[in-house]
Amino acid sequence: MSDMRRVTAALLLQTRVPEQAADAVVLVVSELVTNAIRHGRGEVSLRVSVADCRVEVVVVAESSGRAAVKEAGPDDETGRGLFLVDALTHCWGGDAGRTWCVFRYEPEDAGTAAA
């Protein structure tokens, strides 16, 4: 999973996604990949694409279930990841074995972007 986070972060840096948006994308990739590993079977694949101030993420793992937000109790150690996905993304969804999400961001002004 750390490799998937690292590759995602490098892609977002290379494509000049603003830092705040990139941080959110990397966090959501971590959550979705973790869910795929915990609840799926077999290999987990990740696709991240960047175009027109949008980042699209797709995580695929063999599974018969669909990702769904569940209410976690105050003492539960898991069960909050999809709340983060819902809060940080423009939209998200999935079906058996595939979860996707979309981020939108404003481009940084080239004259004020951090070096």
What is the number of domains?
1
Radius of gyration: 15 Å
- The number of E-state strands comes to 4
Main pleated-sheet profile: 4 strands, antiparallel
CATH class: Alpha Beta
Gross CATH architecture? 2-Layer Sandwich
> What's the N-to-C terminus distance?
28 Å
Summarize the structure.
The protein has 115 residues and is an alpha+beta fold. It has a single domain (2-104), classed as Heat Shock Protein 90 (2-Layer Sandwich), CATH 3.30.565.
Describe what this molecule looks like in 3D.
The protein has a single domain (2-104), classed as Histidine kinase-like ATPase, C-terminal domain (Heat Shock Protein 90, 2-Layer Sandwich), CATH 3.30.565.10. Helices cover 37% and strands 28% of the residues. The protein has 3 helices and 4 strands. A 4-stranded antiparallel sheet has the order 1-2-4-3, with helices on one face. β1 (41-51) and β2 (54-62) form a beta hairpin. α1 (2-14) runs antiparallel to α2. The protein starts with a helix and ends in an 11-residue tail after the last strand.
Detail the topology: elements first, then pairings.
Blueprint lengths: L1 H13 L4 H21 L1 E11 L2 E9 L18 H8 L2 E5 L2 E7 L11
Antiparallel strand pairs: 1-2, 2-4, 3-4
Helix pairs in contact: 1-2, 2-3
Task: For the structure shown, list the relevant keywords.
single chain; about 120 residues; alpha+beta; Heat Shock Protein 90; 4-stranded antiparallel sheet; globular; disordered C terminus
